[in-house]
Amino acid sequence: MGAHSVVVIGGGFIGLEFASVARTLGATVTVVEAASRLCGRALSLAMSDWLLALHRDNGVSIKLSKGIARFEGHGAVTTVHLDDGTIEADVVVVGIGSEPNDQLAMNAGLEVSASIIVGSDLKTKANNVFAIGDCARFPAFPWLQPIRLESVQNAVDQAKHLAASICGAAAVYRKVPWFWTEQFGHKIRMAGLSQYGLRTEIVPGDACGRFNVRHYLDNRLIAIDSVNDAKAHVAARKELASVYCSG
């Protein structure tokens, strides 16, 4: 890798995956995150803490609750100025997520709220107009307010559902959300929405680094995170089907 000092702005999945690869290739890596923990919108506190330890154990400098004041450089960034200091950098990667642009939908008269509002069949309130993927806010599950999911799985599953619906197989869209990421050789697979959990149960694994984290809301199991345990992840998706796909 040509760069020696890499600064990653954003401690979400994209930023952390890039940090993992850059550090493995020998670069000095600093991750700057404005929030108080990593992947705060998507992971439980237990998994955020585990990711923090994983990156620090592999030599990544993690700076939490830090803002960016400005970038400095001529033709390329050479210095990142934080609220309380500076970091020299050969490469700066910004991975801070995105906000949905619902202006087109608003102009078309659709119902919007930092997203396009759809029903459980993914239809908007306009005839024959649907919205799917990252832009759509849908009533996913009986026990949760309408949400917007940013994941490949959700976009693909909603596209398949919509195609079937257009062909006459109308039904309510219900799928177990799942996601995965690989960092420093560890595969983290998530089933369900752990960020809504209020109680966490850690299930120890073995010496190979396997373990699982079960998340509960009002004694209802709503998510299972599996680290280095593909079989447990497959079982988790089946176990959670009764929570996400019924009702």
From TrEMBL:
<keyword id="KW-0560">Oxidoreductase</keyword>
<keyword id="KW-0274">FAD</keyword>
<dbReference type="InterPro" id="IPR050446">
    <property type="entry name" value="FAD-oxidoreductase/Apoptosis"/>
</dbReference>
<dbReference type="GO" id="GO:0005737">
    <property type="term" value="C:cytoplasm"/>
</dbReference>
<feature type="domain" description="FAD/NAD(P)-binding">
    <location>
        <begin position="5"/>
        <end position="159"/>
    </location>
</feature>
<dbReference type="InterPro" id="IPR016156">
    <property type="entry name" value="FAD/NAD-linked_Rdtase_dimer_sf"/>
</dbReference>
<dbReference type="Pfam" id="PF07992">
    <property type="entry name" value="Pyr_redox_2"/>
</dbReference>
<protein>
    <submittedName>
        <fullName>NAD(P)-binding protein</fullName>
    </submittedName>
</protein>
<dbReference type="InterPro" id="IPR036188">
    <property type="entry name" value="FAD/NAD-bd_sf"/>
</dbReference>
<dbReference type="GO" id="GO:0016651">
    <property type="term" value="F:oxidoreductase activity, acting on NAD(P)H"/>
</dbReference>
<keyword id="KW-0285">Flavoprotein</keyword>
<feature type="domain" description="Reductase C-terminal">
    <location>
        <begin position="178"/>
        <end position="241"/>
    </location>
</feature>
<dbReference type="InterPro" id="IPR028202">
    <property type="entry name" value="Reductase_C"/>
</dbReference>
<dbReference type="Pfam" id="PF14759">
    <property type="entry name" value="Reductase_C"/>
</dbReference>
<dbReference type="InterPro" id="IPR023753">
    <property type="entry name" value="FAD/NAD-binding_dom"/>
</dbReference>
